[in-house]
Amino acid sequence: MEKITIGILCVCLAGAGSTHIFDNIYFGLFPYQFAPKWINVYWSLLGLLDFFSVFLLLKYRNLGLLFVLIIMVSNVGINSFSLYSLKVISSSIPLQAQTFFFGVVIGVTPWLWKSKNQGSFKHVI
């Protein structure tokens, strides 16, 4: 069941990363001109960050889980700020989906956490 759950997380992250990479290819580098520059850069980098998190989840599970949590905290926080404060996002539906995914990641992290397998920090540090 753990492998299936990791697979689902990876598919979701790859889908999100593909969206950002598509935007950068189709609309040009840093395509989110309606947002402040720092948000434009962050959203543009999410394509690479999402795929890097897939790699980490598959190769170093614990580090991957931490990285996904960091991405999701920043993503939900920045997108909430963009929607509610800056009002540069017109729909809350993607934010709701991201928040749901963030909740799933928080929920499965303690269960998926491994300290005695090849997915632990010992291969990274």
Automatic annotation (TrEMBL):
The entry's keywords: Membrane, Transmembrane, Transmembrane helix
Superkingdom in the source lineage: Bacteria
Transmembrane regions listed in the UniProt entry: 40-58, 65-83, 95-113
Protein name: Uncharacterized protein
